[in-house]
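Technical note accompanying the year-one report. For the benefit of new consortium partners, we illustrate the data format agreed upon in the data management plan: each record pairs a sequence with a structure-token string. No post-processing was applied to the example shown here.
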Amino acid sequence: MAKIDYREREKELERKGLYDVDMNEDHRYFDALEIDENYNYLPTKITEKLRRLYVLSVVKVVGPIITWIGMGAKVKGRKNLRALGKGGAISVCNHVHNLDTLLMKNALGPFRVFHTGNYYLLKRGWLGKIFKSGGFLPVGTEISDMRRLQETVGELVSKGKIVNFYPEHALWPRYEKLRPFKPGAFRYAVKFNVPVLPVFIEFKMTKLRKLLHRKKKMIVHILPAQYAPETGSVRARAEALCEAVFAAMRAEGERLYGKNVDCLAQEAEEVRRSVPVAEYNEIGTKLVETGILDGIAEALRSDDEEEENCETRTESA
């Protein structure tokens, strides 16, 4: 397998606006375990429960040592985790390292946090068994898979567990900007009436690591929990929650890096700078005069009304 130049791949995907595509897609379906109606998301057999106890006990002891030695990792903001008490929650994190799931276990507690991910990451054999023992919840492609996953998430948060999502969807190693969020995690939070705990992974170079020619250290920042509005449709409340969480993580990124970390904002700024001001104003004037903007706004309103009607019919069924 050819080695991937992640920085070149990153630039290519940014140019195409494909922020939800993995840097490395070669692993996608290799030896993936099939997810069907017989798959149990949680350990049910005594052997599975014992294996989970053993795996997570090892993770609890060895995990922080591995991440500290390999990445200089540390955790900040645990007071925000304690503020949740024993209640369940959805957590979200920027997906920026192959071992960020291990970082999240170190930060939030290996026995408390479960992780969602694409079904093809669950492999056959012992690797898949270890993943399941560690709390991996595969996201399938069938409606029945999604329904059973939803039931599992609801069961877990009702027991005070935290279910982690990577709303950017794709893994971009050591990417220091925030990419657009998918809505799934926030809809789960609204449906089960639990908060979202944002987590932001920072990359920071130190004098020592620079001297030793090491990569930037990783710092996991646990931010205050965010809650959905109490009124509105599920879709509207989830969107508002998503925006609040993104804003909180963006603000944290700006505080840490001293610049705007929203990849779309940076992209828009680059486009704006590449277009002469006079031409930019002329384009805006033409859009207003031709009524294109009004047409787009009307289409969006129609889509919102249609989706809300569908949601009402679904909830009533």
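Partners are asked to follow this layout when depositing records. The first helix runs from residue 6 to 16.
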